[in-house]
Amino acid sequence: MENEKQNKKLKILCLHGFRNSGAILQEQVETWPQSLLQKLDLFFMDGPYPAQGKSGVDGIYEPPFYEWFQADQEYKEFYNFEECLEKIQEFMVAHGPFDGILGFSQVHSVP
């Protein structure tokens, strides 16, 4: 029984960064050492909203790109944040339970 616990993979929810995607994060994470990856069961989720502007990874990775929530042009007002949390919760209920969450920053550069 104890050996089973030691061999159990950690189930991790992976959330991508600003105007990115789950597929891109997955591609980036796959460069990690196999000795680590073999201990993890990774679940990649796309943000619920299509990117409303240019992605910082456009030209490096193929679209589509997603956002977790949206903002006005000055990034002073934010929209759809509560709805985003609901989408993440629904994903966690459908695919969880999870042992942890890996997240990239939602940070952006203000024009």
From TrEMBL:
It holds the Pfam family FSH1. Residues 8-106 form the Serine hydrolase domain. Coiled coil: none annotated. It comes from the Eukaryota. InterPro entries: AB_hydrolase_fold, FSH-like_dom. This is Serine hydrolase domain-containing protein. It comes from Ambrosia artemisiifolia.
